[in-house]
């Protein structure tokens, strides 16, 4: 089948303003959008720029706006979006070139929630790891799946209006550690989340949940954070 690919283009070295360029290429309905971008770059226009790495939905580097919705280009098939496809960079982040955006603000917000294990207590007497029951592990299992692709955060209207808002990805990460029974910094993280640009900025729109390529119930996780802040309970 012939696919029409309309791609957002912007090269700050030569362009005063962004524009779109359209390419017609042959494709199979089982081709991924990433495959189409590779065809354009390799055989039609070598100046096209986009991020990609593992190409298997693990690294999260090729999150893009495809036909108006955030997807991973490596997991989205032609048959999922049709033969007329518009590919744009993620919203809410500065465009560096073409489909590449500046991820630094996103990762700066991620760092604010202390995205690492904190436990200052001595190890068990036997010197082995800190044990955790299957039930305790299941409590935060959902939010361990985040791959930091930014698809959720850049689909959020609250983030579009204020990049200082921590955003769904950072909140998901906070959830992962706050509800880990082995971690000792839950109160510290909840204090961070209680600030002006914390969970209060979430208006439960569900864009983040729909955009997540890992099917994380992000809005539910943020709701659990809100409840923990109100009740002080983590069970």
What secondary-structure arrangement, pairings included, does this model have?
Blueprint: E1 2-9, E2 19-26, H1 33-44, E3 63-66, E4 69-72, H2 78-81, E5 84-88, E6 95-97, E7 100-101, H3 104-112, H4 134-138, H5 157-161, H6 168-178, H7 186-193, H8 207-211, H9 218-231
Parallel strand pairs: 1-5
Antiparallel strand pairs: 1-2, 3-4, 3-5, 6-7
Helix pairs in contact: 3-6, 6-7, 6-9
Short description:
The protein has 9 helices and 7 strands.
Report on this structure:
There is one protein chain. By secondary structure, this protein is α+β, with helices and mostly antiparallel strands. The chain has two domains: 100 residues, Ubiquitin-like (UB roll); 128 residues, Fumarate Reductase Iron-sulfur Protein, Chain B, domain 2, CATH 1.10.1060.10. The protein has nine helices and seven strands; from the N terminus they run ββαββαβββααααααα. The strands form two sheets. A five-stranded mixed beta sheet has the order 2-1-5-3-4, with helices on one face. Strands 6-7 form a two-stranded antiparallel ribbon. A hairpin with a 2-residue loop joins β6 and β7. The termini are far apart.
Taking pLDDT < 50 over at least 5 consecutive residues as the criterion, the unreliable ranges are: none
Count of discrete alpha- or pi-helical segments spanning 4 or more residues:
9
Structural class of the secondary structure composition?
Answer: alpha+beta
Strand order of the largest sheet: 2-1-5-3-4
What is the number of E strands?
Answer: 7
Features:
single chain; 235 residues; alpha+beta; Ubiquitin-like (UB roll); Fumarate Reductase Iron-sulfur Protein, Chain B, domain 2; 2 domains; five-stranded mixed sheet; two-stranded antiparallel ribbon; 7 strands; 31% helix; elongated
